Task: inverse folding
């Protein structure tokens, strides 16, 4: 004889995404709003981590942060310590040392659950420091200031963080929504061409599965995007960010308790290609190839037409992406393509059966649960030979 007492509770989350320029200009109050200072009470304190890449071309940023906090002291916000500059990029996610580094600074500076960790950086810095913030005292509020295109339109908005381990992307991590996101377009001006371009892949990805009009507009504006028109990029980022936020807040499974990961269309191979290339490929560069692969796979399944598949590849190529990488030719000891391990890792990350998002007509999606290697081989043969009409083939 046994008894069962079923329990259930829900925790509401609410956060704002700001789109601005010059967040540390003295008259910009986005960060004051984000820190919810308690008037008449103790000031809201913050530790700040800054991606080294974001200050390389902008060495006055640290000074601007100090000046901004000094100017807003009366608003009840305070720096708990001088901002810490850390090397950005995927290498940071390969080291769990970042956990102790952030933990130690929180310990030394008396950071509590009513304090903030402000993370200024690309997706890698947001993921690694965000993970650290999420485990200190079981979760310090984090304000994200993404500084790359990819981070502003995708990584910075999500509820996930993590570090890589055992050759597997994001093996350790938590689901922790941000307290606030502030997208400042000025940060994008110092990106090199590769990091400028990389995030565009996430916009193409989300357009294919959620918004056919957006995909058409991306095609129309692909040349402007390649030519680094900032206003066009701001348009892309806001549209892409809102599609991601809409999914996270309304699709009913923000913490991925089911087996479906629609926002990870094209990612099963992308994550594997990143690892196989020893992170020579940026996440967004791998996503562009992964999206091309899964789009051609969708053509093979009759879910989109050959013309639609070609249009997707042409948009990516016009933006400047290379759609083939030599890691796709690597084989494991059994003679299978090494990239295919990505399917197993993708499935194991969520558990349950293999679930891949696929377009079902442009702008719509549904999941598939089988993956056929012969079809995949046909896709790779086509992709390797594919050349866009009237688009210069990108080189690096
Ligand atoms: N948590 C999520 O939901 C989520 C979603 C998508 C991607 N990601 C992760 O995000 C990471 C990729 O992020 P990314 O594309 O931003 O690359 P990144 O963070 O690796 O940054 C790329 C390079 O740009 C530099 N940089 C950052 N900001 C700069 C600036 N303003 N000017 C000049 N250089 C700058 C960095 O120092 C780094 O060298 C991957 O680890 C990926 O797995 C996470
Ligand atoms: Zn991604």
Result:
């Amino acid at each position: 004889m046994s008894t069962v007492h079923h329990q259930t509770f829900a925790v509401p989350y609410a956060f704002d995404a700001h789109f601005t320029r010059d967040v540390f200009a003295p008259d910009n109050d986005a960060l004051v709003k984000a820190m919810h200072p308690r008037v008449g009470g103790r000031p809201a304190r913050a530790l700040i981590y800054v991606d080294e890449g974001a200050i390389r071309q902008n060495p006055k940023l640290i000074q601007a942060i100090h000046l901004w906090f000094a100017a807003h002291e009366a608003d009840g916000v305070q720096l708990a310590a001088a901002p810490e500059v850390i090397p950005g990029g995927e290498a940071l996610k390969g080291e769990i040392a970042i956990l102790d580094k952030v933990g130690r600074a929180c310990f030394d500076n008396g950071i509590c659950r009513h304090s903030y960790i402000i993370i200024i950086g690309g997706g890698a810095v947001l993921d690694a420091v965000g993970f650290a913030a999420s485990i200190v005292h079981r979760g310090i509020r984090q304000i994200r200031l993404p500084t790359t295109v990819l981070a502003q339109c995708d990584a910075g908005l999500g509820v996930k963080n993590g570090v890589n381990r055992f050759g597997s992307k994001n093996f350790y991590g938590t689901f922790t929504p941000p307290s606030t996101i502030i997208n400042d377009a000025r940060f994008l001006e110092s990106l090199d061409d590769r990091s400028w371009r990389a995030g565009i892949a996430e916009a193409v990805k989300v357009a294919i599965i959620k918004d056919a009009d957006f995909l058409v507009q991306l095609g129309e504006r692909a040349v402007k995007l390649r030519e680094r028109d900032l206003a066009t990029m701001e348009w892309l980022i806001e549209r892409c960010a809102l599609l991601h936020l809409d999914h996270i807040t309304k699709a009913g499974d923000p913490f991925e308790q089911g087996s479906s990961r629609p926002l990870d269309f094209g990612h099963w191979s992308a994550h594997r290609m990143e690892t196989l290339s020893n992170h020579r490929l940026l996440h967004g560069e791998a996503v562009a190839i992964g999206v091309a692969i899964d789009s051609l796979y969708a053509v093979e399944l009759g879910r989109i037409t050959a013309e639609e598949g070609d249009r997707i590849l042409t948009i990516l190529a016009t933006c400047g992406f290379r759609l083939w990488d030599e890691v796709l030719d690597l084989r494991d000891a059994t003679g299978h393509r090494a990239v295919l391990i990505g399917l197993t890792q993708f499935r194991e990350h969520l558990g349950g059966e293999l679930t891949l998002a696929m377009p079902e007509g442009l702008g719509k999606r549904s999941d598939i649960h089988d993956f056929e290697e012969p079809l995949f081989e046909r896709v790779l043969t086509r992709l390797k030979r594919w050349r866009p009409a009237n688009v210069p083939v990108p080189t690096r």
